[in-house]
Amino acid sequence: MSALLSWLAAHESALSAIAALIAISAGVAVVTRLIWTRMPSHVMDKVKRPAFLSDWRNIALISLALAGLSLVVIFALSPDSAEQSGGDNLAAMGKPSVAVLPLNNISDDPEQTYLADGIAEDVITLLSSNPRFFVVARNSSFTYKGQAVDIRQVGEELGVRYVVEGSLRKVGERLRVNVQLIDTSNGLHLWAEKYDRAYTDLFALQDEITNGIATALGDQIFTAEIARAYATPSNNLDAWGLVMRANRSFITFNRKSNNDAIEDLRAALILDPKYALAKAELSHNLCLRVTATFSDNPREDLTKAYTLGAEALRIAPDHPLVLTRVGSCYGVTGRRDDGIRLLEKALAKQPNNAMALWGMGAALAMNGQAALALAKLEQAIELSPRAPEMYIIKTFQAIALFGLERYTEAEQTALAGLRSYDGWYGLWRMLAIARAGLDDVKGAHEALYKAKEIEPGFSLKSTKATYAIIYKDQGRHSLSKLEPVWPEDLLTNGEK
Predict the structure, then answer these.
(1) Of 217, 218, 241, whose CA–CA distance to 230 is shortest?
(2) Which of 227, 248, 253, 258 is most exposed, with the fewest beta carbons within 10 Å of its own?
(3) Which CATH number fits domain 97-230: 3.40.50.10610, 3.40.50.720, 3.40.50.1970, 1.10.730.10?
């Protein structure tokens, strides 16, 4: 019964149109028949009576036929069918759903209510621009304004997984905003932040707080969804859940996490073969498998990645996440021009898309455009300071700094990335390269042996093979300082 009700609700507009057409068709037929029966006899004798007016049953059959034709036309042209093609416009319950409640003005100045409402509205707008989330509209979430609410009840009534609530207080010349992100299923606080700013330029202050909240919420919800999907057995996950689960690989990227992500994404495509985002994510993960030297058949994996990327773009050519993932795949595997073009398109649609920005920074760093790369990467960090992929961003930031011969900064950046996550051997390799630039041979050796400890297949030979794929100059510049001091026992991994 619940499935039937959901279907009826999802197709309410189409069913209403069909009902209207049935009523109109029946009404026209009835009126025509009544007019005909009241025509003068001398007129009826001269005009042949239409067959369909001879019996009420004929009228009913004609009405049903018209309704059937209407059904075909409406469902063929309705937004419902168009939006569901490719599996990218997921139902609201498939995505993490969020309601932003109006901030509670707890200051003595009632005028600050307008500022509190404005901040909440702007957070709703910014979160709504992210295709990963379903955000309840203001006219629904603001019905709770001024009420003492039970967060679990709000979640049930609005059908959302997360609720954002908070308060605003003006104390003298300072403005204090407290915000919390709450899981409605258990009432747990997933994140909280306090903003304390000088009450000077009000508009700049509102923008700063709004952007800070929206950015932090985006990172926190994304991370919470990955954790939720990872804790759920695969046989209970739908295609969206499998994609979210696959994204955990970017929190702790290594050979195993990469293989697990590829398996989850392939499972998602079995459930939904036309799911463009799953194709784009799989394309990206296959590219990473090749560049990380995890692949047993790099050429085959790369060909498959490019095929999946092209398929994803055909299904959803304007989807920001599809553009970002496919562009990031191309950007680190030698198709830099194509990758940069796709990432530019993603950023034109979402200028504050941190994921696209660091993807662009990576592509530019691989393309020898270090200064431009650094600017994009710094912008990505500013927009998403809690990004799960921070260690990856720091890797490419170190590459760009090395390209500018800023070796000390490259070393410090690599170390900062390792504090975020030290299980990515590529970042240890980058640390070794930076230290070689500083003529710190001992430090470079320590980093190389750590890389070997994490990834047994690591060697100079594997590194050269990787660089031949991701660099136009085959990485000669970045290896020029490190190769002469590379430890002899790490030159190969027993390969011939």
Answers:
(1) 241
(2) 227
(3) 3.40.50.10610
Cα separation, 195 vs 304, whole angstroms: 47
355 phi/psi in degrees, rounded to 5:
-65, -45
Query: DSSP for 392-436?
Result: HHHHHHHHHHHHTT-HHHHHHHHHHHHHH----HHHHHHHHHHHH
Q: Tell me the C-alpha distance between 140 and 97, whole Å.
A: 13
Burial of 94 (C-beta count, 10 Å sphere; 0-12/13-18/19+): middle
Domain ranges of the chain: 12-84, 97-230, 232-373, 388-496
Please name the residue ranges forming H helices in 78-175: 79-84, 112-128, 138-141, 151-158
Same fold: 232-373 with 388-496: yes
Q: Give the separation between CA 385 and CA 79, rounded to whole angstroms.
A: 37
CA-CA distance, 184 to 154, in Å (whole number)? 8
Lookup result for tokens 């068709």: 25
Residue 98 phi, psi (nearest 5): -135, 140
Average pLDDT, the chain: 80
Residue type, 464: K
So what's the pLDDT on residue 279? 96
Report pLDDT digits (tens) over 27-37.
555 555 555 55
Torsion, Cα 11 17 22 24, to 10 degrees, reads 170
Per-residue tokens: 68: 């059937």
Sequence-distant (6+) residues with CB within 8 A of 251 are 223, 226, 388, 389, 421
What phi and psi values does residue 274 have, to the nearest 5 degrees? -110, 20
How many of the other CB atoms lie within 10 Å of CB of 187?
12
Query: Which amino acid, 227?
Result: A
**Domain 388-496 is classified in which CATH homologous superfamily?**
Tetratricopeptide repeat domain (1.25.40.10)
Question: For the segment 439-493, what is each residue's pLDDT rounded down to a tens digit?
Answer: 999 999 999 999 999 999 899 998 888 877 777 554 456 788 898 999 999 988 7
